[in-house]
Amino acid sequence: MDSVNGVDWIKRDEYLRPMMTFDEIREASKRQLASERAQAGEITETTPPAITDKIVDFAAKLGGPTPAYVPVVDDPFGLYGWCSDGVIEKVRHDGGSIVFGWTIWEWPNVMLTAEFHAVWRDLGGKLQDITPKPAEQSRILFQHDPSYPEDFNFDNRPRNRRTPLYPTVDAHAQVTLRKSNVSVAQLNYEERRAAKAGLSLDDWLLSKVKPDEFSEAVDQRFVSLARERLRLQERVKKSAPKLAG
Length: 245
Fold this sequence. Notes:
Blueprint: E1 2-4, E2 7-12, E3 15-18, H1 22-37, H2 53-60, E4 68-71, H3 83-94, E5 97-107, E6 111-121, E7 127-128, E8 139-144, E9 161-164, H4 171-181, H5 184-196, H6 201-207, H7 213-238
Antiparallel strand pairs: 1-2, 2-3, 4-8, 5-6, 5-8, 6-7, 6-9
Helix pairs in contact: 5-6
């Protein structure tokens, strides 16, 4: 935490912002949610309709128990973009506890994404997601991660994790296939070119494998989404209380 002109600032979402009151966070959350709901038609990721084998395999790499569906409930303490702040405030007023883990989103036929998240455990032990969603899903697929205790600082949360659902290009398999299908003369020619470039034959042939165009398109889509989110965060940042002086 830094202090400037007597105002406490905290690093969040890769920029410095002043420590905001709950009411200020609530207003910023409302603006961010409204902005993203206005673009809800562009949202490609949603709650998986079923827990498939690929999801189970992906979840196993995250740690913790098997993922389960958790209902999304309308709650006055729920804060979009500040899920842990909302849950902490909920616990302060209504008891229960905060639970950290991963929301698993599905972009059908494209990829799975694990997003670090916080949900509320009520006094009866049931999990509820009080954070509103831009696409207004009624449930999320959530995997509790017990390695993060209740006093974990959400600002230190891990990055999203992803795995593709589409067939990816196996470059090494393509190299092996190419080596088996060319003549000895062609192979010798490629070896000379590789040596001239200072590469092994396999590395030389790998450099000539065409990139996975679909994968590149997905990457570009996420870059676009990330830039839009940064622009939105910047607008929220500017609406925060100004430094004195």
